[in-house]
Amino acid sequence: MTFFLLERLARLLPKRIQTWSEIHVRLAGYTSREEPLSWLAKGIILVLMGGILGGIVGWMGTPFLNAWISTVFTPTLFPKIVYALVGILVGGGLVTILRGLSIYYAIERRRSAVEEILPDFLLLVAGNIRAGMTSFSAFKSSTRPEFGALAEEVRTVTARSLGTGSFGNALTVISENIRSKSLSESVRFFLQAVRSGGKVAQILENTSTDLRRTQDLKKELESGTRTYVIFVAFVMVIATPLLMAVSVSFVELITRIQSQSGLSAAGVETAGLGFLGGNLTISAAFLEGMAYILLIGNALLAGLFMGTIGGGKPLLGMRYTPFMFIASVLVFWVAKGVLSGLLGG
Fold first, then answer.
1. Distance separating the N- and C-terminal Cα atoms of the chain
2. Does one domain contain both 173 and 247?
3. How many domains does the chain have?
4. Helices (H) and strands (E) in the chain, counts
5. Contact criterion met (CB below 8 Å) for 20 and 43
6. Are residues 154 and 77 in the same domain?
């Protein structure tokens, strides 16, 4: 009953959102087991749950957040409702982003799988045509289970062409259901060859050879840029947390020396420790909190950069962001513990 109401609520969303979900659900291949409105209703549930969880965290963490903000800024205590509202917005927004990234990765996985087997599929179709089959029969006979999503789309196309629609018009639907430039161009070349009466089998074989050569060049390019990816990961996971740990440990050391010595500014100058004089404008707690924020920002930027130089699509690198953030935080904790132990001794 609740899910039915959420589906009705999904129908009340702006038409642009419904169209976006319909297109992306189809491109991800979910239409065989899930309707776009059903996927959208599940997204509403997850966003509501994320917002509620974020609101609870903001409400319960009010004392910690007020104490952290007061370490630098003028002590101003915000009520719990402010942090709760911020938590609701952050939680709901984060779930929305993750929901969008999940279907984006599903679309990209489907595209990558189709492009990987597309040359073999075209060679098989060309072989069937050379054996004397018609174009329709050649495509229908080439739908083997190992071809995955491409075979499913071809089965749908051939079944549709048995009705009132033509095979050529139905074949263009494949490029609409799978976001692949290589597949779209291959379908267009095939239809042009059929309409012009050209050598269809030879065109398919040449297209298959060109696609395989392009894939090999892309793999060589990715292997050539792997060094840059490793360097970015090293800077993010090792170098940046170490520098953050040094900064926090240094501030802790200065604060501890000042509190234990009890020297005034004049006494510090007389003792030759002028660099320890004056009051620090920031505390170690605030600097540690800023370190976590910077590590999150660095993980996001590093993921986008790795996706750009690795696959040509920035969002593809976002899947590495959580792992890099967790690894950098662990390195930060270990380095901070080691430095605190050495400086404390």
1. 64
2. no
3. 3
4. 15, 0
5. no
6. no
Listed residues 223, 252, 278: the one ending a domain: 223
- pLDDT value for 329: 92
Same domain, 210 and 262: no
Phi-psi region of 144 (alpha: psi -120 to 50; beta: other; left: phi over 0): beta
How confident is the prediction for the chain on average, in pLDDT? 80
Answer whether 109's CB lies under 8 Å from 149's CB: no
User: Which of the listed residues 111, 126, 151 is the one where a domain comes to its end?
Assistant: 111
Condensed to tens digits (0 to 9), the pLDDT of residues 166-188 reads 677 777 778 788 888 888 888 88
φ/ψ bin of 27: left (φ > 0), alpha (ψ from -120 to 50), beta (otherwise): alpha
pTM: 0.78
Amino acid symbol at 181: K
User: How many angstroms from the chain centroid is the CA of residue 297?
Assistant: 14
Which sign, positive or negative, has the C-alpha torsion 118, 122, 127, 131? positive
- 200 and 291 inside one domain: no
Summarised one tens digit per residue, pLDDT across range 326-337 is 999 999 999 988
Instruction: Give residue 65's domain range.
Output: 2-111
DSSP string, 54-109: HHHHHHHTHHHHHHHHTTTS---PPPHHHHHHHHHHHHHHHHHHHHHHHHHHHHHH
> Are residues 230 and 218 located together in one domain of the fold?
no
